[in-house]
Design a protein that fits this description.
Mean pLDDT: 95
Structural class: alpha/beta
Shape: globular
Largest sheet: 7 strands, mixed
CATH architecture of the largest domain: Alpha-Beta Complex
Order of helices and strands: EEEHEEEEEHHEHEHEEHEHHEHEHE
CATH class of the largest domain: Alpha Beta
CATH topology of the largest domain: Quinone Oxidoreductase, Chain A, domain 1
Number of helices: 10
Length: 333
């Protein structure tokens, strides 16, 4: 089978298609014929070595985290799926990749594809959906009537997180460029700040939660819009000691991450807020719950562009420009 791989860290030109044997599922895995793979910014960051201390890959490694496809084989301990089932899944942080003609997926990471979505739409969902769910539903424990700030509302995370927050009954504030104001409003955003004209920290007030999605000083600035008892969940860091302990890292890494996050944790504490760093994890159970919401039509996929598998490197390059409205997807079949 063909797969898009990288041979070593740090070199963008190391990405290459290779012919590799079709994988064999373990007893608790399913083998999926991949029809489409959704791309995420981290797919560009991993080959650069940005997550080398955290994520372990056996090189050459296949790229990609999100997929949708058809089950062609199941391990002898699998009970939830059978050949012919249409599924979608995130296999992020599992040591395998989605940009391939076939992929093995742990049974616990997969969910049945919502019947109202095609494979391209379904492939766009898993990582952004799980990230939004784990951040807003689990960490922030968002309740109806609360206010959440989700910056970069037209991006992959933003377009899904806004819709999920509205489904949970929250009021949503976001930032975007002038050309994307109508898009984020159509997704349900209530307070929209055009970052070309205003600074969000001078406009927004009394928020209960912030989803950190933008690098730089945006998280520090967001402290000013929070009220007491609020929550900051960051997807871009700094990582904290709790994250290091959850990953089973050594004492030095726990200390280092604690040091890196000390400033923002203290700043949040002064506002009566709580800070945490979120590293999304695959969860087929959560994805099944999200599938029900998608089936009901309360949340819709937002896709910017679809590339054929042969142009997967171009798709990653397009995503890296940071201008996509919603998701970028690679279609295998």
């Amino acid at each position: 089978m063909k797969a898009l791989t990288f041979k070593r860290y740090g070199k963008a030109d190391q990405l290459a298609f290779i012919d590799t044997p079709r994988p064999t599922p373990k007893p608790d895995e399913i083998l999926v014929q991949v029809h489409a793979a959704g791309l995420n910014p981290i797919d560009n960051m991993i080959p650069q070595g940005a997550f080398k201390p955290i994520l372990r890959f056996q090189l050459p490694a296949t790229l990609g985290s999100d997929l949708a496809g058809v089950v062609v084989e199941v391990g002898n301990r699998v009970t939830r799926f059978k050949p012919g089932d249409e599924i979608f899944a995130s296999i992020f942080d599992l040591g395998t990749g989605a940009l391939a003609e076939f992929a093995v997926v742990p049974e616990t990471a997969a969910a049945l594809k919502p019947p109202n979505l095609d494979f391209v739409q379904a492939a766009s969902i898993p990582m952004v959906a799980l990230t939004s769910w784990q951040a807003l539903n689990e960490r922030a424990r968002l309740k109806p009537g609360q206010k959440v700030f989700i910056p970069a509302g037209s991006g992959g995370i933003g377009t899904f997180a806004i819709q999920l927050a509205k489904y949970l009954g929250a009021t949503v504030g976001t930032t975007t460029s002038s050309g994307n104001v109508d898009l984020v409003r159509s997704l349900g955003a209530d307070d929209v700040v055009d970052y070309n004209k205003q600074q969000f920290e001078t406009v927004l007030r009394d928020y209960d939660a912030v989803l950190g999605t933008i690098r730089g000083d945006a998280i520090e600035k967001s402290l000013g819009i929070l009220k007491g008892g609020s929550t900051i969940v960051s997807l871009i860091g700094p990582p904290d000691a709790a994250f290091a302990r959850a990953r089973g890292m050594n004492f030095f890494m726990v200390f280092l991450f604690g040091l890196l996050s000390r400033k923002i944790i203290r700043g949040a504490g002064k506002r009566g807020a709580e800070y945490s760093f979120l590293f999304v994890h695959p969860d087929g159970g959560q994805l099944s719950q999200i599938a029900e919401i998608l089936k009901s039509g309360h949340i819709r996929p937002v896709i910017d562009k679809v590339f054929p598998f042969a142009q997967a490197k171009d798709a990653l390059g397009y995503l890296a420009k940071g201008r996509a409205k919603g998701k970028v997807v690679v279609q295998m079949r």
